[in-house]
Amino acid sequence: MELVIGCRYKFGKKIGEGTFGEIFIGTDIHSGEEVAIKVEHATRRNPQLPYEYKIYTLLRGGIGIPNAYFYTQERCYNILVMDLLGPSLEDLFNYCNRRFSLKTVCMLAQEMIKRVEYIHSKNFIHRDIKPDNFVVGLKRNANIVFLLDYGLSKRYCNPVTKAHIPYRENKNLTGTPRYASIANHLGIEQSRRDDLESLGYVFMYFLRGKLPWQGLQAANKREKYTKILQRKMEVSFEYLCKDYPEEFLMYFDYCRALRFDDCPNYAYLYSLFRNVMVRNVRFDWPRFWVENGGRWSVRLDGQHRQARRDGSPFSLPRTRREDPPRLTHRGAAELSPLADCGGRAAVQRGAGVGGEPFFWRVDGSEIEAVRSMGSVDSRRCAPHEHESFEQVTPDDLFTEGADYKSIEPNRGSSIFPSLSGLTLATGRLWM
């Protein structure tokens, strides 16, 4: 028997979970396309999925914005059906031994700035910029970086009057402390400049491998966040960007000079990284392999083999620590060694909250794609500094003029499983 929601979307296996709830792989029975189905308890305090659906609807049509196909509330669950996407930049970062080349960072920076510029053009700020919330697409969208998870997003500008939200202080820290702006730490209302400062920290994280305020020890979260702020204020941008092109320092200087309600010059920021990129030639993973027929060249222990890919995210088992597998893409530079993830580095499928990993298995002279049925192998960082928090209320999320209450779930099937193993509820739509 199969669970179908909305008379269209068939549930598959659970592929991940997050603070909001769980995520399942699904299938559109009309088109045969795979989708992601996110589920949360409707009774939780400040549920996230209704907010996300509203924002995805308002942002619809932008490059790098996932499609939200269906939202409903069934019994005590909120359900959101959206695009199934590929690995996050955090997953790829782990895959590349937790260091990206300069050109890779500049390539990503341009894409990420475009995504942030787009949501700003729609009068929203994201407020939780981090590598986990940027993912790459699958198949025909494999060359696009997507921005996900708008549960903490907020309107900074009234879409009708164009009035900017007022400057306020004594606000709670919102987002992920590791990448939060200093103003956010200090309790100042966030605006566009804060998203951009957070992006800058992500860029340096990719270049340096870690940020100076990672791994700080503290007795509790409050003390941890205080120490992170202190360390951020102690570390100058000059020190943070030392040994890297001056454009990174110019980026931070520009962001820090922005006033609360200033409109950033995104084209200028984009040009900084474009200029750096043309001076460097190395990529860490072949982003455009789909355009070259999806052919990979695999080198293991000096042997050359060919493998065919179908557009799915992938990973390689690490055979021994001192001799990691290396891959090259025809027409592209070689990949960095794998990160050590307990013998394998899972690059996951899913909508930013984990997924169903695919592994390349080396067996004699054969290399085949193996769908792992085991648990998702995700490398999690130190507690607290990597977590997103502070769920917003509808009044905080949507300013005056926004019709939040107009969200009405699409009423499909009244059938929904328990969250443990897709145990079937009673109903009539099972086949």
Automatic annotation (TrEMBL):
Feature: compositional bias, Basic and acidic residues: 302-311
SMART domains in alphabetical order: S_TKc
Region (Disordered): 302-326
Binding site for ATP: 38
Keywords annotated in UniProt: ATP-binding, Kinase, Nucleotide-binding, Serine/threonine-protein kinase, Transferase
Top-rank lineage group of the source organism: Eukaryota
InterPro entries: CK1_Ser-Thr_kinase (IPR050235), Kinase-like_dom_sf (IPR011009), Prot_kinase_dom (IPR000719), Protein_kinase_ATP_BS (IPR017441), Ser/Thr_kinase_AS (IPR008271)
Domain Protein kinase: 9-273
MF terms in GO: ATP binding; protein serine/threonine kinase activity
Keyword Nucleotide-binding: yes
Pfam family, one: Pkinase
The keyword Nucleotide-binding is assigned to this record: yes
Documented EC number(s): 2.7.11.1
Coiled-coil segments on the chain, per record: none
UniProt record similarity statement: Belongs to the protein kinase superfamily.
Designated name of the protein: Casein kinase I
Organism: Blastocystis hominis
UniProt lineage: Eukaryota, Sar, Stramenopiles, Bigyra, Opalozoa
